Amino acid sequence: MKIAPSILSADFANLERDIVKVDQAGADYIHVDVMDGQFVPNITLGPNIVSAIRPVTELTLDVHLMIVEPERFIDDFAQAGADIITVHQESTVHLHRTLQMIKKAGAKAGIVINPGTPVSAIEEVLHLADLVLIMTVNPGFGGQSFIKECLKKVTQLAELRREHQYTYEIEVDGGVADDTAAACVEAGADVLVAGSYVYNSENVAERINRLREAVK
Ligand SMILES: O=C(CO)[C@@H](O)[C@H](O)COP(=O)(O)O
Ligand SMILES: [Fe+2]
């Protein structure tokens, strides 16, 4: 099981310090939430911040795009140093082409679906996915409550992967904490994104360890 702390809940005035902290604490990915104020009602950061943090860590930069028409910015995020670029099914008309663009730009291609979107909406493109992200909150903000009904989609994705020998990792994002992590992994999740749970603490290493303990 991999842990991807979300820097949405980090101190933006001390981003380098907060990334180094989770890196040293044994995080696997750094999850970067990009919001445009249109696809979601919040604005965060763009490719310039991704290039600024690229030299700070060798960990995988897992970039979650919550923007309309993400195809406009794929090359910019890939050049900025994103390792995984994940786009919402709901945000792009030509999801198949957008995934191809991500691969052509040299990054791994991720697909993400909102709580209200079924797995059937992405079944035709799962063979192109390196990662599938199931939102367990409605995207836009950290610190929201986990929507447990979304976990059945994690199980569906694990079954489809087995059936078709797909190779994607399954990631969950939203409301992941020590009381929800085990259910995510039991359902079939490989990667847990955690923002407020990790960063709303003086001791991020203890939080990461508690997540690992919770899923044992
Ligand atoms: O994509 C998002 C929110 O839209 C997430 O990555 C959040 O950053 C998760 O925050 P927590 O629910 O873990 O506080
Ligand atoms: Fe996210």
Please characterize this protein's 3D structure.
- With 216 residues, the protein is an alpha/beta fold.
- The protein has one domain: Alpha-Beta Barrel (TIM Barrel).
- It is 32% helix and 20% strand.
- It has 8 helices and 8 strands.
- The protein has helices at residues 15-24, 47-53, 74-80, 95-104, 151-164, 181-187, 196-199, 204-214, and strands at 2-5, 29-35, 60-66, 84-88, 108-113, 131-135, 169-173, 191-194.
- The chain has an 8-stranded parallel beta sheet.
- Strand 6 (131-135), helix 5 and strand 7 (169-173) form a beta-alpha-beta unit.
- It is globular, with a radius of gyration of 16 Å.
- It starts with a strand and ends with a helix.
- The model has no long low-confidence stretch (mean pLDDT 98).
- Bound molecules: 5-O-phosphono-D-xylulose and fe (ii) ion (FE2).
- Residues 6, 31, 33, 64, 173, 193 line the site of fe (ii) ion.
- One of its GO terms (cellular component) is cytoplasm.
- Its EC number is 5.1.3.1.
